[in-house]
Amino acid sequence: MRPKDRAEAERLTVAIAEYAQNVRPLPGLPSDGHVRSLVAQMLESVHRVRYVKVQLHRPHDPARADPKSDMFDPILGAIVRKAEGDIEEAAWLTFLATHCGKHLRLGWRLSKLIYAGGGEPWTWPRISADPASFRRWIGENQSQLAPDGRAGFGNHRKYESLRPDSKRPTGRVVESYVKWVGSDGSHRALFHSAAIESAGDKGQAFDILYRKAGALLGFGRMGRFDFLTMLGKLELANIEPAIPYMTCATGPQEGARLLFYGSANANAKVSHLDEIVAEFGGHLGLGMQVMEDSICNWQKSPGKFRAFRG
Q1: Which of 9, 14, 61 is nearest to 37 (CA)?
Q2: Angle at Cα 213 formed by Cα 87 and Cα 296, nearest 5°?
Q3: What is this structure's pTM?
Q4: How far is CA 194 from the centre of its chain?
Q5: How many other CB atoms sit within 10 Å of the CB of residue 199?
Q6: Strand (E) positions, the chain?
Q7: Residue 209 has pLDDT above 70, yes or no
């Protein structure tokens, strides 16, 4: 463990003990091993969140946004486009990255192939002007993009498919996204509207966009949470979750019930869990993405730290 991580681990360990003693018992942490496991997961989550924020302020090769290049990376590409002042393309790349996810073995291959468009990239001006053509193109080229219609999606998107006859095919997902953004005229207008409606409150603005994003096909709680938190980290929208949005969140819910009630099957209202996790995160000085991610991974191996990727 690096010295900086060691110091942060010590701080979190003390803060957790103070919370358990003075605010709320933590029956899910019956031993030092359980505490160490939770702290380690929190540090892992902090690193994942910090990575994007660090990259945001570094220069990147323009090839990061070029799907014809082996250097293509949709998140770093979004940073390149944002630096150029193209918020629309940056937000679209962020959505595409979230929809496809990063595959543990294939990386960003699927995002790259889709964005490349077989020669003419599916840029935001092109796809927003004619999403129906994109849907047809996906159907005609799914075997080249993914032989089984699903290969290449990341772990958080493992139920998605390119197949036109699936429940939520990529073509229709993207059509719903174009319609969602188009209802406000542009990404910039969509984000500005949320900022105005929330009077500049990041948490309220996140909640406004989160609820609006319910119109996106294939984007349930996790998809919306991942997409919007990435928009916030990339500073494309002035948003940050104030709660972990536990509704329909199997892993995070089970983790919170185990941590605060001693059982993953404990009977506790989801809204109550949101409030408690937000309270706990505030005490620890950690944001909701870190809290949601770390509690979800911790419950998979609460007594001994295991690293989880994807």
Answers
A1: 9
A2: 100
A3: 0.94
A4: 19
A5: 8
A6: none
A7: yes
